[in-house]
Specification:
With about 300 residues, this protein is α/β, with parallel strands linked by helices. Helices cover about 35% and strands about 25% of the residues. The chain has one domain (about 1-300): Ribokinase (UDP-N-acetylmuramoyl-L-alanine:D-glutamate ligase, 3-Layer(aba) Sandwich), CATH 3.40.1190.20. The two termini are about 20 Å apart.
């Protein structure tokens, strides 16, 4: 079982151009997209979050259930669902403005226990920024790591939500001893101002950096550097692409029974290139479709 912990929200995606273009609601949030992608790839997946009882929240839960994701660890609240207004650039890249005050996912509480059979927990995005939920997710991360559970982190930086960048960067460094795998974009790595090798020294077994169409690079604690090119595709938009990479990496590691520091270290060049290539294919398929629509297992071929 791979548990994804973090927010589920509604993306409001513009249809057409101009400031008054109509907005279409789409199910989203980095952790939510990661859970859906894992479910579509065939991994046993659970979602750990707090979701509103409003109509948007019900739609989010319905999508998780129909994708085969276990929602028994989802908390419910009467507060509204978080909204994210997306702006899609000419190159398909997406930027977001968030409406988060008083929303349900901010009130997440640490669960008494993780779902039975949990092998890994993935964290990231807004849920690690917005208090008081951020502290609860951080506590869950530390507890899972202390129990020997594989932990993954995709910070997925949203600068508009981070009031004190230096404090957040320090907090990120404080998470690293409790993290097994870090995945982030080149833009996020630049914003954080660190070096993958520096981060590896603090705790993670591997750091994977995505570079859009240029591909992915993995840095490992034993000094390995493994890179694969991106898959060429006509980009519709990039919404959910990074979340798909996150899911593909976790799914590939689960298939290889490599959700541990020791097994991760033993992947070697061939294993890493296969894993990164699988993630690149998955992201390309997502980018070829409108919105966060990750691929199903039958579209992917061998892991």
């Amino acid at each position: 079982m791979i548990v994804v912990a973090g927010e589920a929200l509604i993306d409001l995606v513009p249809q057409g151009t101009g400031a008054l273009a109509s907005l279409t609601p789409a199910l989203g949030g980095g952790p939510f997209n990661t859970a859906v992608a894992l479910g579509r790839l065939g991994s046993r997946t659970a979602f750990c979050s707090r979701i509103s009882r409003d109509a948007f929240g019900q739609a989010l839960l319905d999508r998780l259930r129909t994708t085969g994701v276990d929602v028994s660890a989802v908390q419910r609240g009467d507060e509204p669902t978080t909204l994210a207004v997306a702006t899609v650039g000419a190159d398909g890249s997406a930027a977001y403005t968030f409406y988060v005050e008083g929303t349900a996912d901010r009130l997440f509480r640490v669960p008494d226990a993780l779902p039975p059979g949990t092998r890994a927990v993935s964290f990231g995005t807004c849920s690690l920024v917005l208090e008081p939920g951020a502290t609860a997710y951080e506590q869950l991360m530390r507890q899972a790591s202390a129990q020997g559970v594989f932990t993954a982190l995709d910070p997925n930086i949203r600068p508009g939500l981070i009031a004190d960048p230096d404090a957040y960067r320090a907090r990120f460094r404080g998470w690293l001893p409790s993290v097994s795998l870090v995945k982030l974009s080149a833009e996020d790595a630049e914003w954080l101002g660190g070096d993958p090798r520096e981060w590896l020294a603090a705790g993670p077994s591997a750091v994977v950096i995505t570079r859009g169409g240029e591909g992915l690079t993995a840095y490992t604690r034993d000094g390995g550097v493994y890179a694969v090119p991106g898959e060429r595709v006509t980009v519709v938009d990039t919404i959910g692409a990074g979340d798909t990479v996150n899911a593909a990496l976790l799914h590939g590691l689960a298939v290889r029974d490599a959700l541990s520091a020791e097994k991760l270290a033993a992947l070697g060049e061939t294993g890493w290139r296969e894993l990164l290539g699988f993630a690149a294919r998955a992201a390309a398929i997502t980018c070829s479709r409108a919105g966060a629509e990750p691929p199903y297992a039958h579209e992917m071929g061998d892991v």
